[in-house]
Amino acid sequence: MSMEAEKEKQDFIRNIVREDLSLGKNNGSIHTRFPPEPNGFLHIGHAKAICIDFGIAEEFGGKCNLRLDDTNPCKEDPIYVQAIEDDVRWLGFDWGPKLFHASDFFDQMFDCAVFLIRKGLAYVCDLNSEELRRTRGTLTEAGIESPFRSRSVDENLRLFNEMREGKYPEGSKTLRAKIDMANPNIIMRDPVMYRILFEAHHRTGDKWKIYPTYDWAHGLEDYFEGITHSICTLEFEIHRPLYDWFLENLELAQRPRQIEFARLNLAFTVMSKRKLLELVQGSYVKGWDDPRLPTIAGMRRRGYSPAAIRNFCDLIGVTKFNSLTDFALLEHCLREDLNKKAPRAMAVLNPIKLVFSNLPDGHVEWLDAINNPEDPSAGTRKVPFSKELYIDADDFREVPPPKYYRLSPGQEVRLRYAYVIKCLEIVKDPVTGEIKEIICSVDSDSKGGNTKDGRKIKGTIHWVSAPLSHCAELRLYEPLFKTEIPDDVPPGGDFKDNLNPDSLKIVKAFLEPSLAKQSPGTIFQFERVGYFCADKDSTPAMPVFNRAATLKDSWSKIENKQKTK
Ligand code: ATP
Ligand code: MG
To answer: How far apart are CA 447 and CA 470, in angstroms?
Structure first.
């Protein structure tokens, strides 16, 4: 754990929890939950919620449930359930032996609805969804009471039971709470508790013909699970009076308390599961774990570690204000983590061939290379140095600009972990004029990169052996969208209009031989190039690496600029 994380965290939610604990509420215990709907993969916004829900429970010695909020059978799928479990576990959180499902409580929820009907606080309404919308009123106008509002308790009980038995067609009836059609909060205007749906549920099969709405189900799930603090995002703030109304009128003791915080919005991406699903189904990306997506599975595949994501969530903190978080901050957290952990290796993306005139044909020498200058315990490895090498075309200039310290005619440069070399001659294709190879000499007295006579060599470049390198496919990613807020579209527009056509570029590269066989998920810093993560698409013939990030940390720059302001 980092020093920062060991400090006691301060934010309004933790302050509420501290106060509740000190007052001895809930018998001095805390119990939270993370309640995703299994209708898609989790994304970095969910990671924020997970860090809050599980993190707070952990810090205050409580428990956090993982609950699948499976009240809408139309959109849910067991594939998503598995992905959710994998992602939460991968982030490093544990929900204990029991996984909760909203559907576990469908029977108790039904009984609670009957209780409210008996109290005269719920009624069966025959208005269809269009009529419900029309009679709900607006922010400035009260709604209109349903003509079915005054049905007797007995009639309501009979109809509700018949709804459950499947006697009425989908959409023909609802169960509504009887609250107040003139309430300034539209949510309180006789909200729907149950709708008729002839849809099989992935856990309860075709037992149910009616399904609870989010508002009705959520507080009950919290109550049945013994949740003390039900933490959710700001859009539920206006639902809180209803959350409390249900629990109060059910006369439940030790009621959970709902607390809202601002959701994470990240620049240059979208986070709604509906939109992510659209991108996946429309093949705009290659699956839910496409490394360009903000899904946890995509970020994992790209090379993000749980530590990087958790540090990011700590840094953004918890507030009640909506804001847009810079993508550079997320990448900064990734680089901080990878710089410490990722072993170094050499890879050349845009090769140009060097040939040493003063080495014999077939010369190969295995040199020691440092695995991680940030971590001496990572040790060293052997890299082959040979008569023919590749360097990056960018590290050579026939006509060097001022202050160019890399290779150019007549100039010397240091090869990382190897020797000082000098450019003697350029060999070009006589027809096209293209550079075919560069003839160089090696200063054999400069092993390790230091000259014997103390000549200063300013530049150091990376390289790989030409005959002993391994070809690989590198996938270079740019933001998936070309605009900061892809959801901002003109009328009639679509967020997909803002997709960046250049978000994926595939290039071939030459890698040092140690990189040829790496299991998916292994991460390296290719020196001077970026952080790369071995991909599951790798084959023995062609390793595939995803670029997790470049080496340039634009966040540090932004931070410094802000400090000097
Ligand atoms: P989406 O809008 O992406 O479909 P959702 O809110 O419908 O998200 P749920 O599965 O219901 O998705 O979310 C589970 C929990 O994660 C909820 O408590 C929700 O408030 C929280 N959550 C969802 N998106 C974010 C976000 N961007 N930032 C923080 N918390 C989030
Ligand atoms: Mg939702």
So the answer is: 24
